[in-house]
Design brief:
single chain; mainly alpha; 73% helix; 0% strand
Length: 171
């Protein structure tokens, strides 16, 4: 893990710790997803009454939290999908520079996506957006989870870019 390096600048260590915190929140969402599905199945099987809104809660609350909050941690751990066929042919110094440049470009694109998502979240909050199900399930608060996850991933990409440029200089 990156934050094991005590010589990293404090902003990088902070970003790494925030990614870990977001991953813990994602794990909590997984536990809540399992509980929601278990209660729904048990209610459906034992009492012939499913949990009202279970599908909507699972789809609009827990799944976005589970996926979006864990992306920064995956980047931090180097577990994002990478195609390195061309990178592997480059010398180490150039490879680190190219990877850092792509991380920087990714951070910029993610920041733009987070900005757009924030605008949509604010619009949804103003409308009090809910599902069309009975009972209606509020989904607008979880649009802000998407904003948080995208911002965290953008910050982690910035940290990856910093580390890549630092490796390039040292190589």
């Amino acid at each position: 893990m990156s934050d094991a390096d005590p010589f990293s600048p404090w902003p990088l260590r902070l970003i790494d710790r925030l990614s870990a915190l977001f991953a813990i929140l994602a794990a909590g969402a997984l536990v809540l997803l399992v509980c929601t599905v278990t209660i729904d199945v048990a209610g459906r099987s034992l009492f012939h009454r499913p949990l009202p809104g279970a599908l909507e809660i699972t789809a609009h609350w827990w799944m976005p939290m589970l996926t979006l909050l864990a992306m920064g941690f995956a980047e931090r751990a180097g577990e994002q999908i990478r195609v390195t066929l061309l990178l592997d042919a480059l010398p180490a110094r150039m490879r680190h520079g190219v990877e850092a440049a792509f991380a920087l470009a990714s951070a910029a694109l993610l920041a733009l996506l987070a900005w757009y998502t924030l605008q949509e979240a604010l619009h949804g909050a103003a409308l009090g957006r809910t599902t069309a199900s009975r009972p209606p399930v509020a989904i607008w608060p979880f649009a802000f989870v998407a904003v948080g996850g995208l911002v965290m991933l953008a910050l982690q990409c910035l940290a990856s870019a910093w580390r890549g440029f630092a490796r390039m200089v040292r190589a």
